[in-house]
Structures are given as C-alpha cells and as structure tokens.
Amino acid sequence: MGSTMKRRFLVAVVCSLLPTAVHADDASYCAELGALARRYLGSAGAMGGMGPDPDTQQAIQDCNSGNTARGIAVLERKLRASGFTLPKRS
After folding, report:
1. Which residues form the signal peptide (predicted)?
2. Disulfide-capable partner of 71 in 14, 42, 62, 79 (CB 3.0 to 4.6 Å)?
C-alpha cells in the first residue's frame, strides 16, 4: 500500500511540473526570437540608432511579461517575412 501511494504522489508531482516546463520552454524561445528581432529587424530612428518597429517592440514586451503565445506569433511572422530561418524550438 505504501509503494502505491508513493507512485501516485510521484505521478502527481511529475504531471504538475509539465505545464511549467512547457511554459519555460516557450519563455526561452520567445526570448531568443526577441533577441534576433532586436538585433536584425528595424530601421534607423531619428537619432540615428536602429530599433524594431512598434509591433515588434510590443511582441518583445509580451514575451517579457509572460504573454508568450502572442509574442511568439508576431516575432515568428516578422522574422520569416524578413527571410530568417527560425531557431529550433525545444
């Protein structure tokens, strides 16, 4: 009886960690896309610096605030449209 309870507890713990692991993977993928966008996408600003457009900036902010689904969708679209091959998603 004791080993059955331990097994159930272990299964419950593992199952509870799965969404967290997926979220962490989404957050790191979103951050990677954001870094690529910051580095390679954008146009010259009034002060001579390069910066991403407002949609890309908002997507990066979405990634940073945890709204990875929206951030990833926008950043993937912007990077693909600029001819980039997206990094592999783990």
Report:
1. 1-24
2. 62
What residue numbers bound the domain in which 77 lies? 24-90
pTM over 0.90: no
In a domain, 75, yes or no: yes
**Is 37 a member of any domain?**
yes
In this structure, the dihedral spanned by the alpha carbons of residues 63, 79, 57 and 72, taken in order and rounded to 10 degrees, is -20
- DSSP alpha helices (H): ranges in 1-90? 2-40, 54-65, 68-81
CA–CA gap between residue 34 and residue 37 (Å, rounded): 5
